[in-house]
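Researcher: Here's my situation. A collaborator sent me these components and asked whether they could plausibly form a single complex. I don't have experimental data yet, so a predicted model of the whole assembly would be a useful starting point for our discussion.
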Amino acid sequence: MKTINVTINGTRYEETVPVRMLLVDFIRERLALTGTHVGCTYEGVCGACTIHLDGEAVKSCMLLAVQADGHEITTVEGLAKGGELSALQRAFRQHHGLQCGFCTPGILMNMTEFLVHNPTPTDDEIRQGLIGNLCRCTGYVHIVTSVRAAADELARTGGA
Amino acid sequence: MYPAKIDDYSRPATIAEAVAALASFGVGEAMCIAGGMSLMQAIKSRLVRPACLVDLQDVAELRGIRGSGGALSIGAMTRYVEIAGHAPFASGPFAALRDAASHVGDRQVRNRGTIGGSLCWNYMAACLPAAVLALGATLRLVGPGGERTIAIDDFLIGPLETARGEQEVLVSIDWKSAPARSGSAYKKWGLVKDALPVVGVAALVTLEANGACSAARLALAGLTAGAQRVPAGEAALLGSKGDAASLDRALEAVCANVDLHSDHWADAAYRGQLVRQLGRDVLTSAFARAKN
C-alpha cells in the first residue's frame, strides 16, 4: 500500500492505495468520479478512460494510481466551469457528436487537449487525433463535425 | 486485465538513486517503468510479474533532446510526442526518428510512451528499435558497476530481449556526429492506422557529392527476428543514386535475405510486397532528405 496525493478537478485527495490499483479504478471506484469510462478490458485500446494528467491526454487504464502521485488530473467532470459546458461539450450536444455516449468522455478529454495544440485543425488532422478513441455508434462523422465546430467557436471567441 | 500484486513502488529522482533502487531488490524482482505503454500491458496480462516497480518519471537527467555541433543525445525518458515535434528532425539523418515517433499508437500513447522504454522492451513489431538500429546509435547505460556504452546493433538481441542488465538503467541514445549528406526515413504498414506494424522499414543513406550512395543502413520491424538489419540490402544500395530500378534491386536483395513468415495478418508473399513498397517509399525519402 502507498499513500498518494493527487489533485483532481481542483480538489486535493490523499488516499492509501494498493500499488497495483489502476488509475482509472482509483478515479471511478475510490473517488466515485464515474464519468471516466472503461470501454475495453483495460487493454488501452478504446480511449474511453482518457483523462488529463498535468494537462495532457492519457489513458487512465494504462497507469497505476501511484504513478499519478503529486500530479494534477482533470476528468470529464472538470470540463464544465461554474455549471457552463465547455465549447467542445456544447458543440457535441449541438451537432449530435454522440449516440450512446459511452465513448464521449474520453473523446472530449482527448480533443480538448488536441485543440490546445492545434486550434485550427483540418478534418484529416481531427480524424488522426481520434485514432485512440473508439466509437461504435457514430462512424465519427458527427464527432468530426463537433470538433470542427468547437474549433471555429473557440477561434471566434478567443478561447474557453 | 488487472495487474497481479505488486509489493513495492519507488520513484527515484536521480540516475544514481534509480540504480540503487534496482540494486536493493533481488535479481528478477524489480523492473523499471518508463512511460509504461508496453510494460503495463505486460503486467496486466501477467506476461511479467514484477514485485517492485522503479518509476523513472522524476529523473530529469533522463529527459530531453540535446544537440551540439552535429552530436545528438536523446534522453531515454524522452517521449514520442517530443521526438515527433522536434523541428530539426524534419529532414536529414535523424528524420526517421520523427517518422517513427509520429505514428506510434495514438496521441494518448505518444504523450506517455518513451524512446528508451521502447528500446528496452524491444517488441518485435515496435517502430523505434528498427529506426534507431538503422541510424546506428550508441546507447549509454548506468548500473551498479558504473557506466558503459554499447552499439544499438549489440543492444537489440531479439524480440523482448536486449543486452541491458536487469540492474542497469538506459540513460541516453547518442550519436557522436551527424554524417554529412545523409538522410533517413521510416514507414510502416499495419491493419489499423498507426497500429503496431505488420512490416516497418527504416533506412539511412549517405551520399557522395555526385549523389551516389556511399553508405547505407537498412532495418526492418515486424518480422520474426524483430528489429533487424539486412546487410545484403545495404550492400546492394552502394552506388545507387536513388533511381527506382536500383532501389528495387536492393529491395529484392532484402526480401531474399530475411525470413518472411505467414500469419493471420499477412502471408509471406504479401509481407514481401510490403517490404518492397514501403522500402521504395522509405529509400526515396531518405535519398531526398540526404540532398537537402
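Model: Some features of this prediction you could bring to your collaborator: DSSP finds eleven helices and 14 strands in chain B. Chain B has three domains: 8-54, 62-175, 182-291.
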